[in-house]
Amino acid sequence: MYMAHRMFRREFRLLPQLVRDVGPGDTERAAIVADHADKICAILDAHHEGEDAKVWPLLLARGGEESMAIVPVMEKQHQDIHAALETVTALLPVWRGTAQGGAELASGVDVLSERLIEHMALEEKEILPLAEKHMTAAEWALFGEHAFATIPKKTLALGFGMVMYEGDSDVIKEVLTSAPFVPRLVMPVLGPRLYASHARRVYGTATPPRVGR
């Protein structure tokens, strides 16, 4: 979870400036940035779907008053993030094709990023300790498996490379133990290569700024 959050913090913090740096009418560059935005938005959506389906119900069933106090807050934040996500994804197609309206899109991403960063900080503080107390390792693994099953296959390896960029190697190995056999073998090699290639296209470097936590 911490690795995924680190990736989301980096990519969504950097995205508004990527949009603002695209010149009016530069549709070639807009298409590259829009493709990147589409991918990280899809990964975020799948991540939150997994929490909604695999984490919140178990915590509400087992966590007593502690969970009843915080899980509804998480659910409301998910709704607010999803609304911001829908705004961004609705603006992307026109901007991709025209490279016009970048200021509105960048402002929408700013809102999304702010809501997401606030949510992740609270989740790390309140939810992860509850999950450690009330969920088994196998149940937590189902949350990870949901992402493997939900994220589009063409995006999955790239997304894993995004996570690995600032990830801990030991944690990465642990995460992959629950992955299907082929991804478990391929991801550690393919993921970083795909992200390096993607980052060069999006950021102009294979090593974009690391923003960490």
Question: What is the mean predicted local confidence, pLDDT?
Answer: 92
Q: Calculate Rg over CA atoms.
A: 17 Å
Taking pLDDT < 50 over at least 5 consecutive residues as the criterion, the unreliable ranges are: none
CATH class term: Mainly Alpha
The CATH superfamily bears the name nmb1532 protein domain like
**Into which percent range does the helicity of residues fall?**
over 70%
Question: What coarse outline follows from CA principal-axis ratios?
Answer: globular
Work out the helix count: 8
Class by alpha and beta content: mainly alpha
Distance between the termini: 12 Å
β content, as a range?
A: under 5%
Task: Kindly give the count of domains.
Answer: 1
- Tell me the number of strands: 0
The description of the largest β-sheet is:
none
**CATH architectural type:** Up-down Bundle
Order of SSEs: HHHHHHHH
What descriptive keywords fit this protein?
0% strand, Four Helix Bundle (Hemerythrin (Met), subunit A)
How is this fold's topology laid out?
Layout: H1 2-20, H2 27-62, H3 64-98, H4 102-134, H5 137-150, H6 153-165, H7 169-176, H8 181-203
Helix pairs in contact: 1-2, 1-4, 1-6, 2-3, 2-5, 3-4, 6-8
